[in-house]
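Sample pair:
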Amino acid sequence: MARTLALLVLAIVASCALVQITTAGTTHVVGDSLGWVVPPGGPIVYATWAISNTFLVGDTLLFNFTTGQEDVARVTKEAFLTCNSTNPISLKSIGPANFTLDSLGEYYFIGTLDKHCFLGQRLAINVTAYSGPTPAPAPAPPPASRVPRNYTVGDKLGWLIPPVGPLFYASWAYNKTFLVGDTLVFNFLNGSDDVAVVTKQVFDSCNITSTLAVLNSTPANIALNATGDHYYTSTYDKHCILGQKLVINVTGHTTPGSGPSPPATAHPPYKAVSPSPPASAHPPSNAASPSSPAGGAMAPSPKTSAAPITSGRLYFGTFMVSVVASALYF
């Protein structure tokens, strides 16, 4: 009887061990033999490493580094893009450090010491599946819905070559929800900038040889009339390459009802124009208009509606950015 009981216990232990082995995740050594350092080839090193691996829920990331010389912080996507380490999700300063991937989605890691992040010590990965049986899917959240909003691109900075490169407009768009019915307002200096609505291919290459449309009078108001990705840049020389580019994703529809206050100036439906900005001539301040009334007062021109985007298949003038693309900007 005792022998039978002992065999039964051994069988149970062996079964538990087998279950642990089959459900245990993979340990990924970040950077392989290089470890977690400021990479000699810049951010492309860890971006390439991430692409060559498949990450599942239950896997572990192992960061090998020397304590006191490096650290690793898990951060938000916005903090990753801007190398902002002020409020990390978690921070580990003793090497080696382990992070368990316990859910689907994107994970972002940076080194917080000195300028290590800016020099390429940054990693973004995407956990795409479960290592074991897939759990029952959670109920889909209801689609986003609210009244229309006006978004001023770049807020107070406006629409120009940003001081920190393309990450500025990517960060601006990151925490915003864009819906059909919203309006983008681009504020810029007439004669020094414009807004080009472009395809993804033009946006990625910054080869502004063709555009879907160009608006060259400020403020340029563009109504979002279709879901999907929208790409914007400028036709002025090297503005796109220097970071004046924006991509947004429209995810749903606004609710009927009262919308936002109309922008200060609305533009008629835009049309494609030559990428070369026209030279602007200004009449003397005391020049009288031939169409002015006898009293000399110019009759006000009627306002027109905001420029609609009517095709659901158009793409507009930027990130995501894929993770590798965002890493290459440093």
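The longest strand covers residues 122-130.
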